[in-house]
């Protein structure tokens, strides 16, 4: 068992994070499936859902910048714990009220966590610093496998519960298990980065603001990738489950099958593709990710049956399996430890900046041109994204 734990990097902080992900995803594995149909069930329209998604994108961008700065200057552990507190607060607000303004408050808090369907920069930096360089992609892949494996089991369960008992039980379960996960982090997570308290930044305030917001010259291509992909994916998928409900008549149970397919492929593919990234290099894996994204969006455009969507949603998970460990490993090689979390947060913030207008545009395209219109935008942005990926230097 010890050799298996070492092979999967399941030691120290990685073990704690794996346990927390396993517990929390019992709730969030169901919540991811039903959150858009639930919000629509409160009486809002597809346009208001777009506003809520835009709020999530804006607050996520703010969170990414804030958590990255705090993590580099005050440590990784406070960021991981506080961002989880914000996620608990978001669920509490959603349970407390169905009013549209309460939904906006929920969207701010859930986005600000920088942990809603993405990675918090403080948590990502803590992961890279909890293992040696040869195991970084493996550690990320193992945590993704644990998270998505749990979501695989819970996604269809969430759809079934929503059909039989409504959405409320899922909200309560999500809140309770996230509180348990937060307790684990508070008592067992160890710090990996202790900033030099005596080292002061003597740069002028304006220069510090520029450093916090503008790309580093040597990494401009990476920021262009995040802007392009952030916009394209958000146009295509930010309202996807809601659009499937309104335009295609998909039920929560059918959405659960789609989510199960996605999570199962992600869980099974994470570890082998993470290890493959350590062997063949990040650039090739990023190219493979874009190729899987092409297959996914073309499948969604050409086919209409539920089972075709279940299949291509599984293919979309391969996109992430190729991308995430390779991207994180690439950034870790490029950026020194004292700036790592800030750059990780800033890169993801650029992705969210690209995504800010996307839900509004997606809603407009859906209302005027139908279900497939946002997907054609994704085809264009994927072509541009591949151009930028090809410009990354092999390392």
User: Could you say which overall geometry the principal axes of the C-alpha atoms support?
Assistant: globular
Rg, please?
20 Å
Mean pLDDT, rounded to whole units? Answer: 86
Fraction of residues in H or I helices:
over 70%
pLDDT < 50 runs, ≥5 residues: none
The tally of beta strands, per DSSP, is 0
Q: Count of helical segments? A: 17
Query: How is the biggest beta sheet arranged?
Result: none
Order of helices and strands: HHHHHHHHHHHHHHHHH
First and last CA, distance: 34 Å
Structural class: mainly alpha
Q: β content, as a range?
A: under 5%
Q: Can you describe this structure?
A:
By secondary structure, this protein is mainly α. 81% of the residues lie in helices and 0% in strands. It starts with a helix and ends in a 6-residue tail after the last helix.
Which labels suit this protein?
395 residues, mainly alpha, 17 helices
Quick synopsis:
This protein is an all-alpha fold. It contains 17 helices and no strands.
């Amino acid at each position: 068992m010890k050799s298996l734990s070492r092979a999967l990097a399941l030691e120290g902080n990685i073990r704690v994070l794996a346990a927390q992900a396993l517990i929390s995803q019992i709730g969030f594995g169901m919540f991811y499936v039903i959150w858009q149909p639930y919000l629509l069930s409160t009486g809002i329209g597809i346009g208001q859902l777009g506003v809520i998604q835009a709020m999530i994108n804006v607050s996520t961008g703010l969170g990414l910048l804030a958590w990255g700065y705090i993590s580099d200057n005050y440590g990784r552990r406070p960021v991981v714990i506080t961002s989880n507190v914000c996620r608990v607060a978001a669920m509490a607000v959603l349970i407390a009220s169905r009013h549209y303004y309460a939904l906006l408050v929920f969207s701010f808090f859930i986005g600000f966590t920088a942990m809603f369907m993405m990675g918090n920069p403080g948590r990502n930096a803590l992961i890279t610093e909890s293992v040696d360089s040869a195991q970084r992609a493996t550690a990320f892949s193992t945590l993704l496998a644990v998270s998505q494996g749990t979501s695989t089991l819970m996604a269809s369960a969430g759809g079934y519960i929503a059909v039989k008992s409504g959405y409320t039980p899922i909200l309560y379960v999500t809140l309770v298990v996230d509180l348990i996960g937060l307790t684990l982090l508070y008592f067992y997570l160890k710090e990996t980065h202790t900033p030099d308290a005596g080292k002061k930044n003597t740069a002028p305030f304006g220069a510090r603001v520029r450093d916090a917001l503008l790309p580093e010259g040597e990494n401009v291509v990476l920021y262009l990738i995040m802007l392009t992909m952030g916009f394209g994916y958000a146009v295509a998928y930010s309202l996807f489950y809601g659009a499937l409900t309104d335009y295609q008549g998909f039920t929560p149970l059918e959405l659960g099958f789609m989510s199960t397919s996605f999570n199962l492929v992600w869980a099974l593919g994470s570890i082998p593709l993470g290890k493959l990234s350590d062997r063949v290099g990040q650039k090739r894996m990023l190219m493979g990710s874009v190729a899987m994204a092409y297959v996914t969006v073309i499948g969604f455009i050409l086919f209409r049956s539920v089972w075709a969507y279940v299949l291509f949603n599984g293919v979309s998970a391969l996109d992430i399996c190729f991308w995430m460990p390779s991207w994180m490993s690439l950034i870790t090689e490029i950026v020194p430890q004292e700036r790592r979390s800030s750059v990780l947060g800033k890169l993801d913030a650029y992705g969210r900046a690209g995504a800010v207008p996307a839900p509004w545009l997606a809603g407009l395209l859906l209302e005027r041109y139908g279900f497939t219109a946002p997907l054609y935008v994704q085809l264009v942005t994927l072509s541009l994204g591949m151009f930028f990926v090809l410009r990354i230097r092999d390392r």
